[in-house]
Amino acid sequence: MPEISDGGIGSLLRHAVRALPPPLRRRLQALRRQRATPLADLLPLSLPESMHIDPSNACNFRCAFCPTGDDELLRSVQRPAGHMDFDLYRRIIDQIAVMARQTGRTLSILHLYKDGEPLLNKRLPEMAAYAKRAGVADLVGTTTNASLLTEDAAGRLIDSGIDQVRISVIHVGSERYKELTRTWADYEKVRTNVGFLYAEKKRRKSHMHVLTKINDTALTDEERERFRADFSGICDDLRFDSLMGWSLSDVKDFTLGVEVATGMDGATALRERRVCPEPFSRLAVNFDGQVSVCCVDWSFGTVVGDLRRESVTDVWNGERLRRFRLAHLRGRRGDIPACANCQYITGEQAHRTLDQHAERLLALYDLPKS
Ligand code: SF4
């Protein structure tokens, strides 16, 4: 029976630790301990703690709470669209592998998604398999709306060795699905696809963790109960996520007028923060190789590098990201339009708070380049 979890990857780690052989189990237990350590005590990081790489920023849904669902908005920031080229992806993974060897570290998580529906990129399973073979991350996962999760796609994902598949359920019932996604009105198909994935992973004795989550678009008690009832037998974990305001939350209300009180994990109370932990701990590679500081940068407004021309090391240790970090540490987040009115920062978990460490970190990050 799956547990109802409100945490981020905690449930995945618990599941994975139970399911894995002893050496990997010890590694994941170390990862859990690391997640309990305040981020400030780990800085500066020689390798990002985690990364997103976007297989595709196109989507077959037009969700009302997602920037990718608003074509006019995307046109207004001239966001390009497409799938990631596999050769580019391979070079990125190879570069992370070199960094990992040089630093003796690995990413804790590699998320193969960012702005779009990753299964639109037919090579997603190959991407996951390549990352797993390269050993660049303790965990490799993806997030999908499950509409394209055919039996073939499910089998190929399981074969890839991917550690986690997160399913974004949009609502319960076809009518609300159509209203929110504006393209898809087949709730039962989503359930069928998730059910097949879960049954197949059991049949093949795969360690893959299936997490099903739903955004709390002012769900009623009955709707919450239906979500539990419909999915509790066909996944490892269930989760209720809060809607979030994304970067540039002043440009559009992505929370649909719902009163949101917690971060995306559905647990962390929102509070004002000065310094964002993202530029110190993560990177998000867009489909075309441009590197955003964070996964909520839907407008490409935090781009600090381009992996078509630079290496991951160049970007992580580069001048653009250094200036970005210094702006945050100096209390000048408002100078960066994408960050100035970002709601996501207010839901960052407590152990990632850097505000009270800004002076010490300035001394670390303000060093002249040698
Ligand atoms: S403030 Fe928001 S947009 Fe800026 S780096 Fe942090 S999460 Fe990203």
Structure description:
With 370 residues, the chain is of the alpha/beta class. Helices cover 37% and strands 13% of the residues. A ten-stranded mixed sheet has the order 1-7-6-5-4-3-2-8-9-10, sandwiched between helices. The protein is globular and about 55 Å long. It starts with a strand and ends in a 5-residue tail after the last helix. The model is unreliable at 1-8 (pLDDT under 50). It binds iron/sulfur cluster (SF4). Iron/sulfur cluster is lined by residues 247, 276, 278-279, 293-294, 296-297, 302, 338-339, 342, 344-345.
User: What is the rounded Rg?
Assistant: 20 Å
Which molecules are bound in this entry? Answer: iron/sulfur cluster
Described by strand count, sense and barrel closure, the largest sheet is:
10 strands, mixed
What's the overall geometry?
globular
Please state roughly what percent of the residues sit in beta strands, choosing from under 5%, 5-15%, 15-25%, 25-35%, 35-45% or over 45%. Answer: 5-15%
Number of helices: 14
The number of E-state strands comes to 10
Summarize the structure.
With 370 residues, this protein is of the alpha/beta class. It has 14 helices and ten strands.
What topology emerges from the helices and strands here?
Blueprint: E1 3-5, H1 10-19, H2 22-36, E2 50-53, H3 71-76, H4 86-103, E3 107-111, H5 124-134, E4 137-144, H6 151-160, E5 164-169, H7 174-181, H8 187-203, E6 209-215, H9 221-231, E7 237-241, H10 278-281, E8 282-285, E9 290-292, E10 305-306, H11 312-316, H12 319-329, H13 337-340, H14 358-365
Parallel strand pairs: 1-7, 2-3, 2-8, 3-4, 4-5, 5-6, 6-7
Antiparallel strand pairs: 8-9, 9-10
Bound molecules: iron/sulfur cluster.
